[in-house]
Design a protein that fits this description.
Layout (H helix, E strand, L loop, with lengths): L3 E5 L6 H9 L17 E6 L3 H10 L3 E3 L2 E6 L14 H9 L3 E7 L15 H33 L3 H18 L14 H5 L9 E6 L10 H13 L2 E5 L1 H7 L4 H11 L5 H12 L2 E7 L3 E8 L4 H8 L1 H5 L1 E7 L1 H7 L2 H6 L4 E3 L10 E6 L2
Parallel strand pairs: 1-4, 1-5, 3-9, 5-6, 6-7
Antiparallel strand pairs: 2-4, 8-9, 10-11, 10-12
Helix pairs in contact: 1-8, 4-5
Length: about 375
């Protein structure tokens, strides 16, 4: 299990360069003109996880399989996208299919790379994109509400009544110029609210694309974005997309030398992926043995049967118990057998809430 994160922003802010770095390919054409990305590029990337390598070493695993996640490079948006300007309709449809949105904001000066609006102002860029998404959501709601009102009034349709209530709540926010993600549905209504597929209801991550000299410390532009993120309870990441693209083709040794030279201890992409995990409340559990060591992704709060279902649906249906060892115990005691001998393997039932880093083995009825 992973998630699909859409990389969005105005033209020429570094979206495709970032995508290329993420996927370590040149599949997305990075060029200095608007709409160089015509079709969304989808890339599946490995989630950096040092703990997995340690488990594989202890378990003597022949294969190491990291968790995966998807990033989508989407064509640049311009003012009027909600009315079909530029590649607006396609842009909005592609975002709707994503679980989260990474706003790439230009936080670097470069006279050789044109800005579609002729100035460097990342917060203004963000407002342009956010406004177009809000206008698209308003248009969608205004088309849906009359039909829902009719169904709720004449047919006594409970689902229609709930959808109407949620639509009106979202519209009230949007009418005030606020995104739909600020509405907090009850736990019972959360799924129905998500089914509305509102663009501004999706969780967001701000990616400050800076120059190489600012990769370790940020700059005046990225500070403005970070301050906004802090005020709104959002997540922001500082990254130099061009540098990350260069790092992507280096050997491990060359990469470490490059990072040291610019004052970083790891690639910015690692920070970006971890931020994406935090954004959607995801966590990792592991399976480890002689054949393979593997990382699996589950939502925080998932029960043991749900975690088993990530591996195979039959594991969830026939779940009996989960043999569970914490990562720290697995490592400190030197593996499964010694953890068992020390009484550190727990037998967990259907109600067990999986913890980040659990090493698990599932028993189930076929």
């Amino acid at each position: 299990m992973g998630f699909k994160c859409g990389i969005v922003g105005l033209p020429n802010v570094g979206k495709s360069t970032l995508f290329n770095a993420l996927t370590k390919t040149a599949a997305a054409q990075a060029a200095n003109y608007p709409f160089c990305t015509i079709e969304p590029n989808v890339g599946e990337v490995a989630v950096p996880e040092p703990r997995l390598l340690k488990l594989a070493e202890i378990a003597g695993s022949k294969e190491v399989i990291p968790a995966r996640m998807n990033f989508v490079d989407i064509a640049g948006l311009v003012r009027g996208a909600s009315k079909g300007e530029g590649l607006g309709n396609q842009f909005l449809a592609n975002i709707r299919e994503c679980d989260a949105i990474a706003y790439v904001l230009r936080c670097f000066e470069d006279d050789d790379i044109t800005h579609v609006e002729g100035r460097i102002d990342p917060m203004s860029d963000f407002e342009t994109v956010e406004t177009e998404l809000m206008l698209a959501d308003l248009d969608s709601l205004e088309k849906r509400i009359p039909n829902l009102e009719k169904r709720a009034r004449t047919g006594g349709d409970k689902d229609a009544k709930l959808s109407l209530e949620l639509c009106l709540a979202a519209k009230a926010l949007l009418d005030e110029g606020k995104p739909a993600r600020l509405y907090e549905p009850s736990k019972d209504d959360a799924k129905a609210y998500a089914m509305l597929q509102l663009l501004t209801a999706k969780p967001v991550l701000y990616v400050c694309n800076v120059d190489e000299a600012s990769a370790a410390t940020g700059n005046e532009h990225s500070i403005k974005v970070e301050e906004h993120a802090s005020r709104t309870g959002a997540i922001s990441v500082v990254i130099c997309a061009q540098m990350e693209a260069e790092l992507a083709v280096l050997s491990d040794e060359e990469e470490q030398e490059y990072l040291k030279a610019v004052g970083l201890d790891e690639p910015g992409l690692n920070k970006l992926i971890r931020a994406g995990y935090a954004l959607l409340g995801l966590q990792t559990y592991f399976t480890a043995g002689p054949k393979e060591a593997r990382a699996w992704t589950v939502k925080a709060g998932a029960t043991a049967p749900k975690a088993a279902g990530v591996i195979h649906g039959d594991f969830e249906k026939g779940f009996i118990r989960a043999e569970t060892i914490s990562f720290d115990d697995f490592v400190s005691l030197g593996g499964e057998a010694r953890a068992k001998e020390a009484g550190k393997m727990r037998l967990e039932g259907r109600d067990y809430i999986v913890r980040d880093g659990d090493v698990m083995h599932f028993r189930f009825n076929a």
